[in-house]
Every structure is written in structure tokens, then in C-alpha cells.
Amino acid sequence: MLPPEYSPGIPLFDTETAGMTVWPNPQSRGDFGSKPWYISVGGRLLAFVYPFVEVLAPQPPPTDRSWSWDSVEPPPPFVSSVVTGYAVHPDGRTVFVSVRDWRPDIPGKIYILKSRRSTFTFDMERLEWAHAGEWLLPFKGRAYYDRELDAWVGLCLHREAAGRVCCCDVPPAPPAGAGCETMPAWKLGRDVFFGDPGSALGHLGATLLSDSTFCVVEGGIPMDCDGDTRTRVVKMTCFRLKYGKDGDLCTTHHRAYASLSYGVAHERMDRTQNPVAFWM
């Protein structure tokens, strides 16, 4: 690993050389304090950061140290901080995004409207936003399409189902699916993977590792440490999903557990940052 020249920065891992370095945050016109979120669509990395949608430009030549984002028009009709869940459509070009407690954005002003719950789509090829309907995807954060289940899978958004995964039918992408009046059918998984009231591990994430194989990642501060500690604990649970005889969502195969503790790299580490898992 090369000495870090930037703090905070973005860790980069080269899968060909197995080398790691730290790269500066790409410059953006958006406000990175407004909970940006990122997603890969059509082989391009998108950043949704208030008030823009930006795409990461190609890696610059070695002689040029700049690395920037290119803005995509039009901007989203909502602020990035009110996004509850999102997923990439199997067509590989459409992103479904659910938002709640929002109203149309006016530059320079952020309004909250507690009764509004909507889902929008963004077409990566047409660079167009569309209103899908007045409903929310049932996911907290990102969901992933599973070919065997023919459904999106992710952590459940609803508080009464905390710690469970759920799956949701994939609606048609616009224009065929424009104006869906009702939320797609969804199912709640049986098993509870986290949510112990006595646990300090409250910041969660889930990542699809391969076909029908998932990993729930749970991270937080150890119970025997104070709130100012840099120590973190990560617990991981891997499993597979299938539909049972009654059509319910079931966990199958033996679940593998792992855990580790580590110290955050610097004091400016976001205390609420969710752990992230990815497959290489």
C-alpha cells in the first residue's frame, strides 16, 4: 500500500496488481454534505449529490492529476438526502429511486413535505427523469436484482421489519412502466439478521455477492467503548435465498459468520457511515 497523500480520500484497489493507494475526492459542484449516493449504471459511475447528477469522468493520464465529475442534465427533482431506496433495473440503463418527505426542489431552498412519498426513474441513455408513482420501494438503501428470484432484494425499510431482507417484483421501465399507480408486490424474509435491542451495532448495509448469494454487513461501536472511540466492529453473515413451497422468501444453505474489529483512519470519519461489502 502506498503512503496516503490525501486524508480524507478514496481508497483505490487495483485488482490486477493487488496494490492499494488513496486518491483525493473528485471535485464536484455538488454539496457532499447532503448525503450523496453512488451507483453504477451502464458501466458508468453516477453520483447523486445535491443539486446535481454527476458522472465520473474517465481516469486522466498519469501526467494529469485532476479527476473530475461531469454534470448530467436535468438535475433530479428532489434532494439526495431524502432518498430511501434505489435499484438498477435489469435493462441495465434505468435506476428506480424512492424518496419521502419531499417536495419539488427550488435552487437554494430545501423544503420538507412529510406526506409525500414518491418513486422516480432515471434513464441513463436518454438522461431523463420520469415520475413512476406515489409509492416507495420497500428497501433501505440499495437493492440488487437477483435473476433466480426474478426480483430486487435488499434490507427492509420498515421499522417493524428491521433486520430482515425483502424482495420486490421489478416493474416495467418507462415508457412501458410509466405512471405505475400501485407499489409492486413484495415479500418479507423470515429470518432476522440483526436488530438486537442490546446491540451497539446499529449501522447496516447489505450487498449482493453473486447469483442468489448475499452478505449482510453490520457495523458499529463496541458496547464496552465510549462514543469517542475510533474502534469499530463489523459482523458479516452470508446466505442464499429461495422461494419456499408457499411462495415465501426463505434462507437456504448454511450461513457463514465472520467478525472483525479495526480502528478508523482519522478523526473526520463519518460516525454514521455504513459498512460496505463488495465481491472481487
As residue ranges, the low-confidence spans are 1-6
**What value does the Rg take, in angstroms?**
20 Å
Number of helices: 0
Elements, N to C (H/E)? EEEEEEEEEEEEEEEEEE
Q: Could you tell me the strand content as a percent range? A: 35-45%
Structural key phrases:
single chain; 280 residues; 2 domains; four-stranded antiparallel beta sheet; 18 strands; disordered N terminus
Secondary-structure map:
Layout: E1 10-14, E2 19-23, E3 37-41, E4 44-49, E5 52-56, E6 69-72, E7 83-88, E8 94-100, E9 117-123, E10 128-133, E11 141-146, E12 151-155, E13 165-168, E14 186-188, E15 203-210, E16 213-220, E17 231-243, E18 249-263
Parallel strand pairs: 7-11
Antiparallel strand pairs: 1-2, 3-4, 4-5, 5-6, 7-8, 8-9, 9-10, 11-12, 12-13, 13-14, 15-16, 16-17, 17-18
Structure description:
This is DUF1618 domain-containing protein. The chain is mostly beta strands and 280 residues long. 0% of the residues lie in helices and 42% in strands. The chain contains no helices and 18 strands. β9 and β10 (128-133) form a beta hairpin. The protein is globular. It starts with 9 loop residues before the first strand and ends in a 17-residue tail after the last strand. 25% of the residues are buried.
Q: Could you provide a short overview of the structure?
A:
By secondary structure, the protein is mostly beta strands. The chain is built from no helices and 18 strands. The strands form four sheets. Strands 10-9-8-7-11-12-13-14 form an eight-stranded mixed β-sheet, with no helix packed on it. A four-stranded antiparallel β-sheet has the order 3-4-5-6, with no helix packed on it.
